[in-house]
Design brief:
- It is a single chain.
- With 836 residues, the protein is of the alpha+beta class.
- It has two domains: 119 residues, Tetratricopeptide repeat domain (Serine Threonine Protein Phosphatase 5, Tetratricopeptide repeat); 642 residues, TonB-dependent receptor, beta-barrel domain (Maltoporin, Chain A), CATH 2.40.170.20.
- 17% of the residues lie in helices and 47% in strands.
- It has twelve helices and 42 strands.
- Helix 2 packs antiparallel against helix 3 and helix 5 runs antiparallel to helix 6.
- The chain is globular, with a radius of gyration of 31 Å.
């Protein structure tokens, strides 16, 4: 029996390892075959080179691969095969269709001439000589023969490629990319493309910031259940989960409860909630299966995106309408009462393309803060075991009038229940709410108009409160209206320039009983960016943005300026060195500006601490310097990114220490509470300096094997505080490591495992003293290092139709990622995906 089991295991292993073909990172594998093919073609080994190009196209279709195949056959003098490849290329409706049609016409004439010359001569079947033709007929025949001879000469005059070095043929024109376009539709096949770094499609080698791209294939193979889980693979990303539905994400330090220094976008629409200054990750109304890719800009982005892009930008780009399956069903079940189901549909009718989705999900908390039998605690949360639950629906449509003229409309709603861990003395809150959005895009050549509306409303409050204590339950309604006009054009002036100019207006309205009356703010901004290709291999990028905020000048309207300058040096193909300097800022939130909140003191009935806002706050400021090297070795399927940086942060907004109030101000008649003291939002005097190094590498050395690894080291210091008293210094983990391996086979099996390590931290939090609850002090809470292990096994039961997967999450030891958070434990999920 033991021998039989061992034999079965050996057979299974052999089946996996000896598969005829396997795919890991499709882009890198296709690029490896493409580059090898072009190298062979340059050596005039046309058959072997074209075979490599065909394999690249089979892995990941790209129209320019067909163009290169056609040119290779044309250079080899194989007119018939060149014509076939050109015709395949033309089915993609390329922008250079007119010039390709002319080439095809010339080759067709040449082929007809060759066919005629090769036809055997059979004199026995020759007809009798015709009667003498008229002079006019003879002239017409002579003209026709002359035109045919000239066409043959034109076809034969096309130069053949040299053999000195590999080269990539590219069409003379390609359409520009929008934010939802495929990441691989650039001029060079399988080159990684980004749109977030410069607000236009470009190679990641040209990006002026350190960038990381997470593809749809990365998402699927990871088995991740949430967006923050995916971001652990980003070098320098600080991901902190306090519960199933509560996560905070920062870049290059400064993470906290209510992380507020990274701008999160979905197709360019902000998910930043201005009333509190956070991203509600569990309430973003899209599913992981709708995402085309996630672009992470690691570094300041205020020069293009304005407020709150202080430490970086995370742009979640969804699939373009009409680009996916007509129907896809996905069902997931797992431990912790985890249940999820979704339906996704793409379609098109003529010039109209659409994407629609509906979904439901829920999962229990990892743990509850209090037991059910506590006599001194009352439960306020209507669903105390639920960590996250929600139902959503979205619809996106695009109508294309012509190549550069289109209109897009999208919208969605999400009814959700989740948890939030606020600042200061406040602990775990529940939120039962609704988010909704509507978005419109108009593209008219170089002009683009983008508009959107964001809404969030609901009821929230502490999940647990002491019996007899005044409740902090709240009602919230927030609406944001935004319009942005963009203009882009390229021109020549002492080199090539790519100019982008934009103006923006925004209206914010927040009704929240923590703020008192309805609050309204009007914001405006303008930006300009010029990318100047001075001379090969040097290019310069200069950006500048000015934002108008109604309170920035000591409580009156003021301006925030955000410049950025970057230089890129590309001495060799596939390598780019960059140096940049930039400034960025975060604006005060509605809570920080307007709040007046009495926080009850636990264990002391009738006593509260007063927290107030401050309309004279200055924006938080960042000055950043960065050196970077991005490179690739496509022949072996490798690319990497290395960055060294220094960030100088000042005017951080935080709660002041509690100050005792004079006797005349120590009683609040509206609530009948005694006020133990007051704390208000202020700008800190300390200046913080963060220095760090980051590196990330992706490998696809052989078909089937994919390897990803990243490293980040960081230190933060203060000019006024010792490290043990400096929250930003001790709360940022010095070392973060990530490693992941995937293996895919044509035997329909997939394997993946990833490991993330985070070093120890010490969290400094405000807490009442044990001896006197009316005294509030800062306490140090050490937190040990932890390792997260996730694994996935997938099997395609019916090719392109039915797929099943088993995923293990948090397979390392149980741990906490914040002193006030849940103890995070292992969960296992099974997923069924059907694409009929």
């Amino acid at each position: 029996m033991k021998h039989s089991k061992a034999l079965h295991r050996v057979c299974l292993l052999a089946l996996c390892l000896c598969a005829s073909q396997a795919l890991a990172d499709a882009r890198l594998e296709a690029r490896r075959h493409f580059r090898n093919g072009m190298s062979l073609i340059a050596k005039k080994e046309y058959d072997e080179g074209v075979a490599e190009l065909e394999q690249a196209y089979a892995i990941k279709p790209h129209p320019n691969v067909l163009y290169n195949i056609a040119r290779a056959y044309q250079d080899a003098g194989r007119t018939e095969k060149a014509l076939d490849a050109y015709r395949r290329y033309m089915t993609s409706s390329p922008a250079d269709a007119a010039s390709v049609e002319a080439t095809v016409a010339a080759l067709e004439e040449k082929q007809r001439a060759l066919d005629a010359a090769a036809a055997p001569e059979d004199k026995s079947s020759l007809p009798m000589p015709p009667p003498p033709a008229s002079v006019q007929s003879q002239q017409q025949l002579a003209t026709l023969l002359e035109r045919l001879e000239k066409a043959i000469e034109r076809a034969e005059s096309v130069p053949a490629s040299g053999s000195s070095a590999p080269s990539t043929y590219v069409p003379s024109a390609l359409p520009q990319l929008g934010e939802s376009s495929s990441a691989d539709d650039g001029l060079v096949p399988y080159e990684e493309r980004v749109v977030t770094a410069s607000r236009r499609a470009q190679s990641s080698l040209e990006a002026p910031n350190a960038t990381t791209v997470i593809t749809a294939e990365d998402i699927r193979l990871s088995g991740a259940q949430t967006l923050p889980e995916l971001l652990r693979r980003v070098p320098g990303a600080d991901v902190m989960s306090l519960g199933v539905g509560s996560a905070n994400v920062s870049l290059r330090g400064f993470n906290q409860r209510i992380a507020n220094k990274v701008l999160v976008l979905v197709d360019g629409r902000t998910e930043y909630q201005d009333f509190l200054g956070l991203t509600l990750w569990s309430a973003i109304p899209i599913g992981l299966d709708e995402i085309e890719r996630i672009e992470v800009i690691r570094g300041p982005g205020s020069a293009l995106y304005g407020a709150n892009a202080m430490l970086g930008v995370i742009n979640i780009i969804t699939q373009a309408p009409g680009s996916g399956p007509r129907a896809r069903f996905n069902v997931t079940g797992g431990t912790g009462n985890s249940v999820a189901g979704s339906f996704l549909s793409h379609g098109n009718t003529g010039a109209l393309r659409y994407r629609a989705s509906v979904a439901y999900s829920q999962a229990d908390k990892f743990s509850r803060d209090y037991g059910s039998n506590r006599p001194d605690i009352v439960l306020r949360d209507p669903d105390p075991d639920i960590g996250v639950r929600g139902a959503r629906g979205t619809l996106s449509a695009v109508y294309t009038f012509s190549e550069d003229k289109q209109v897009g409309l999208s919208g969605g709603a999400y009814r959700f229940n989740t948890e939030i861990y606020p600042l200061g003395l406040l602990r775990n809150y529940y939120m039962d709410g609704l988010t909704a959005y509507a978005k419109g895009d108009v593209e008219l050549g170089p002009l683009k108009l983008k508009t959107f509306w964001n809404h969030i409303s609901g009821n929230a409050g502490p999940q647990y409160e002491p019996i007899g204590q005044r409740s902090l339950a709240l009602e919230l309604s927030s609406n944001l209206f935004n319009a942005e006009l963009l203009f882009a054009r390229s021109f020549q002036l002492a080199g090539e320039h790519q100019l982008n100019v934009g103006v923006e207006g925004r209206l914010k309205r927040v009704a929240w009983n923590y703020l008192g009356a309805l609050r309204e703010e009007i914001h405006a901004a303008a930006f300009v960016q010029d990318e100047w290709r001075l001379a090969e291999p040097l290019s310069l990028v200069a950006s500048y943005r000015v934002d108008r905020h109604p309170l920035l000048d000591n409580g009156t309207p003021g301006l925030a300026h955000s410049p950025r300058v970057s230089a890129l040096f590309r001495p060799w193909e596939g390598h780019a060195f960059r140096i940049s300097a930039a400034s960025a800022f975060r604006e005060p939130t509605f809570l920080e500006s307007y709040t007046r909140l009495l926080v009850p003191v636990q264990g002391v009935p009738g006593a509260s601490g007063l927290t107030t806002g401050n309309t004279s706050l200055r924006p938080e400021r960042l000055t950043a310097f960065e050196l970077g090297w991005r490179g690739e070795f496509a022949e072996v399927g490798m690319d990497w990114d290395v960055a060294l940086y220094q960030n100088r942060v000042k005017d951080l907004i935080a709660l002041s220490n509690f100050e005792r109030l004079p006797p005349g101000e120590s009683y609040d008649p509206a609530t009948g509470n005694y006020l133990i003291g007051r704390s208000r939002f202020v700008n800190e005097d300390s200046i913080y300096t963060a220095r760090g190094a980051e590196a990330g590498i992706t490998l696809a050395p052989i078909d089937g094997l994919g390897v990803k690894a990243s490293f980040a080291f960081q230190t933060i210091s203060s000019d006024l505080e010792e490290k043990e008293e400096c929250g930003p210094c001790s709360q940022a983990p010095q070392l973060k490591l990530f490693g992941g391996v995937t293996y895919r086979t044509q035997t329909d099996l997939e394997f993946g495992v990833d490991v993330a390590f985070t070093s120890s931290t010490t969290w400094i939090e405000r807490e009442p003293t044990a001896s006197d609850p009316t005294r509030i002090e800062l306490n140090s809470n050490p937190l040990g290092a932890y390792t997260i292990i996730n694994a996935r096994v997938g099997y395609t039961a019916v090719k392109d139709v039915v797929e099943v997967a088993l995923t293990g999450s948090q397979l390392g030891g149980a741990h906490s990622q914040h002193p006030f958070g849940n103890r995070i434990e292992r969960r296992v999920y099974a997923t069924l995906t059907v694409t009929p």
